[in-house]
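If you are new to this repository, start here. Below is one unmodified record pulled from the training split, so you can see the exact layout before writing a loader.
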Amino acid sequence: MKTMELILTRSVSAPPEDVYDAWLDTKAPGSPWFGIDRAIVQPVVDGLFYHIVTFEGHDWAHYGRFIELNRPTRIAHTWVSEATRGLESILSLTFDPQGEGTLLTLRHSNLPDDDMGRRHNDGWRFVLDSIAALKGR
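And here is the target side for that same chain:
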């Protein structure tokens, strides 16, 4: 199966530590687990996550494991769902200082190069738009 990679960036008006922490906090807007009815998230290396997103009348289960956690510079975890066609894709995030804020770069690799894989672009844009609203403390 042919695969592809998405790369998206956002400037966030908060320091890298705050953006990193928000990504892992299921109660923080901008976290991929925010607003999910039931999310299991174990943010330690080899820790697992599981959640279901209801979208367009369909329940989409998502699974993964954390493979790198280097606060406040980098997070990497796997990402598997029906939309990845069962492929274990890799999501990596870097948090680079940008003035008093952060340049967040999201790289999602090993996605199927098809309509389902490309739909991740819209999903991650929604998440990044939410986290971009985060303000420094």
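Two things worth knowing about this chain: The chain has one domain: 3-132. The CA atoms of residues 42 and 63 lie 12 Å apart.
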